[in-house]
Structures are given as C-alpha cells and as structure tokens.
Write a structure and sequence with these properties.
The protein is mainly α and 199 residues long. It contains 4 helices and 4 strands. Helix 2 packs antiparallel against helix 3.
Length: 199
C-alpha cells in the first residue's frame, strides 16, 4: 500500500514537472531559434577551428514557415495599424477643422455679445454705454435748463401778472376817482350854470 502511494505521488510529481516544462517552453521566434540551436548537432571541420551547426531540414522548414507566418502577421498588423493611423489622422484633421470653425464662431459670438449695432455700425458695449450716458446726461442737463428757464419765466410771468393786476386796480381806482371828479366838476358846473340862470 505504501508502495502504491509512493508510486502515485511520483507519477503526480512527474506530470506536474512535465507540465511546468511544457509551459516554460518559449514559442516566440527567438525561442524557436534557440531551441533549434540547442537541438542541432555541431560540426567542426578538422584544421579550421571553426564550428558549424547542422540543422534538420524538417526543423528548418518548420521555423521558416513560422518566421514567414510571423512576418505575414506582422505586415498585416502593420497595415492595419497604418490604416488605423491614417483614419485617426483624418479624424484629427476633421476635429482640428471643426475646432477652428468653433473657435471662429466663438470669436464672432463674443464680438457680437460685446458689441451693439447703432445705426448699422457695430460699437463696443463700453463705447455704446459712454455714448448712451452722454446723451442721457445731455438730455438731463437740457431738461434741468428748460425747467429752470420755465420756473424763472413762470415767476416772471406771475410777477408781471401781479403787476398787471396792481396796475389795473390802480387804473380802475384812478378811473373811478376821475369819473367822480368829473361828475363833481359837472355838478359844480351845473350848479354854477343853474346859479347864473337863476340869478
């Protein structure tokens, strides 16, 4: 029983080691070249001192296919990336055009917001406000001037009216006195005439 248990543990350990080795194998191009280099035989011609590696033709064909597939995939990826890059450049160009148009629209909108049309001419709001307040101030001063003139004229008119009334009263009084005097003089004259007739 112990033997079966040890045998079972040994098999589990062997499978786990084998699976770790399989997982650790590098399938990249570099890894494949390294594996071919390790597994190929070495050849040394006598007297040259140089070393050569002898590669199995099947392994060579396999690595050649893998390299060509990798190149093909790389070219495909590069082509896709270039297409994507061109598309992104076009999008960036469109966005820049749109941004410049929006920036121009914003500038025009800000100019319109900061200016007011007066008699067909665009004026800055500050200039417009200065002109407006100048006109308001001028009109206010004119109004004050005319109110002052009206008040002065009104006072003079009232004074002239009072003087006219006073003069009319004096004239009426003088007229009454003159009429009374005239009547008195006529009575005296009539009395004198009557005295001279009767005498």
């Amino acid at each position: 029983m112990k033997f079966k248990m040890l045998f079972f543990l040994f098999i589990i350990k062997a499978f786990s080691s084998f699976s770790q080795e399989v997982r650790a194998e590098d399938y990249s191009i570099k890894g494949q070249f390294d594996k071919v280099y390790r597994t190929s035989t070495t050849f040394r011609p006598p007297g040259t001192g140089k070393k050569y590696k002898v590669i199995d033709i099947v392994k060579f064909q396999k690595i050649k296919e893998n390299v060509l597939d990798s190149l093909k995939n790389s070219k495909k990826i590069i082509s896709e990336k270039e297409n994507l890059l061109n598309t992104e450049r076009e999008n960036i160009q469109k966005l820049n055009t749109s941004f410049n148009k929006t920036k121009l629209d914003l500038t025009v909108a800000l100019q319109k917001e900061n200016s007011i049309s007066l008699f067909g001419a665009q004026l800055n709001k500050i200039t417009y406000n200065i002109i407006l307040w100048f006109i308001i101030t001028a009109l206010t001063l004119c109004l004050i001037f005319f109110v002052f003139k009206f008040s002065k004229s009104n006072v003079l008119t009232k004074k002239a009216q009072e003087n006219l009334n006073y003069v009319e009263e004096e004239f009426d009084n003088h007229k009454k006195k003159s009429i009374e005097r005239e009547q008195k003089l006529r009575r005296q004259l009539q009395d004198e005439i009557n005295k001279h007739r009767n005498a």
